[in-house]
Amino acid sequence: MAAAARLALRARPLARPNPGVAALVVRDGVVIARGWTRAGGRPHAEAEALAGLDPQTLAEATLYVTLEPCAHQSPRGPACADLIVAARPARVVVGQHDPDPRTSGAGLARLEAAGIATALLDDPASAASLCGFLTRQRLGRPWVTLKLATSLDGCIAMADGTSRWITSEAARAHVHARRAQHDAILVGGGTWRADAPQLDVRLPGLEARSPQRVVLTRSAAPEAVDTIAAPADIAGLEGVQYLYVEGGAETAASFLSADLVDELHLYTAPVLIGDGKRALGSLGLANLAEAHGRWQLAERRQLGSDQFTAYLRTRTS
C-alpha cells in the first residue's frame, strides 16, 4: 500500500477535479500491473491497472488501491466497483474510505456482494497521498502548504526589500518541483505589486504544470489571476485541492492565524541578515504555551547549501 501511495503522486495535480489514486495488482508477491488516475480524471487508477490482465491471472491476484473504488456511474466512464466485479480479482485491499457520498462504502459493499474478499485499511500513506481530496471533502477547502525561504535569523529579505536570492539554485529548483504538485499558488497583494512574481514552474519538461495563480487582495484582479479577499475564501477556489502559499510575511501570518496551514515548508539558507524583513507578521498568540504542540516534523533534507524542513499541522480531527 505504501508503494501504491507513492505511485499516486504521479496523478497530482493533473487528475483534478478527481482525486489522485493509484492501484497495484500483486500476484505471488510480485507487482504485475499498476495504474494511476490520468490527466483530467480519466481513466481511473483501477481501470489502468486491470486493463489487459486475463481472468486466470486475476483470480489469484490482489488489487491494492489507495481509495475506495467509486460506485457511481459517470458520462466519462463506468464505476470502478463494477469494473472490479467484472475482472474478479481474488482480493481487494483499500487504503482509505471514500467520503464522497456517491460512493462512501457503496464501492466496498458492491465488491463484497459479488463475493470478492475485501479489506479496508486506515492507511496513513494513502491518506497523505489523498490529503487534498480528503480535506476538500471533509473541510470544504484545499490542503494548504505554506512555503517560507529565510536566512538563519528568520529574515526573508534585506531591510530595503531585496530578496533575490536568499536560497541556492538547488533549493529554488526544489520549490519549482513542489509548485508543479499544486493546483494553485497564492501570494499577497503587496508581494504581487512589489515583485510581479511569475509564480510558474521553470523546470525543463514541467513548464505546463504551472499552477493557477491567486492573489490575496481586495483590489481588482490582475489579468489571468484570481483574487480572494481573505484566507477563508480559499474554499471558493473551484477545483483546487492543493494550494501553495508563498507569502509575503503578512499573508503567511494571516493563514497561520486563521489555522488554515496544513503543511509548512521551510527553506533555510546559511546566511545572517540582521536588520531585515521578518518572515512572519503577528500571529496573535496570547502566550507561549499556544505555540507548542502544533507542528510535527515530516521531512528534512539538505539542498545544496540550504536546509529543507517540512512540518505537518497536528490536528485532533
From TrEMBL:
The keyword Hydrolase applies. Residues 1-111 form the CMP/dCMP-type deaminase domain. Its EC number is 1.1.1.193, 3.5.4.26. SUPFAM superfamilies: Cytidine deaminase-like (SSF53927), Dihydrofolate reductase-like (SSF53597). Pathway: Cofactor biosynthesis; riboflavin biosynthesis; 5-amino-6-(D-ribitylamino)uracil from GTP: step 2/4; Cofactor biosynthesis; riboflavin biosynthesis; 5-amino-6-(D-ribitylamino)uracil from GTP: step 3/4. It comes from the Bacteria. One of its GO terms (molecular function) is 5-amino-6-(5-phosphoribosylamino)uracil reductase activity. It holds the Pfam family dCMP_cyt_deam_1. The keyword Oxidoreductase applies. Keywords: Hydrolase, Multifunctional enzyme, NADP, Oxidoreductase, Riboflavin biosynthesis. In the C-terminal section; belongs to the HTP reductase family. In the N-terminal section; belongs to the cytidine and deoxycytidylate deaminase family. NCBIfam families: eubact_ribD. PANTHER family: 2,5-DIAMINO-6-RIBOSYLAMINO-4(3H)-PYRIMIDINONE 5'-PHOSPHATE REDUCTASE, DIHYDROFOLATE REDUCTASE FAMILY PROTEIN (AFU_ORTHOLOGUE AFUA_8G06820). Converts 2,5-diamino-6-(ribosylamino)-4(3h)-pyrimidinone 5'-phosphate into 5-amino-6-(ribosylamino)-2,4(1h,3h)-pyrimidinedione 5'-phosphate. This is Riboflavin biosynthesis protein RibD. The lineage of its organism: Bacteria, Pseudomonadati, Pseudomonadota, Alphaproteobacteria, Sphingomonadales.
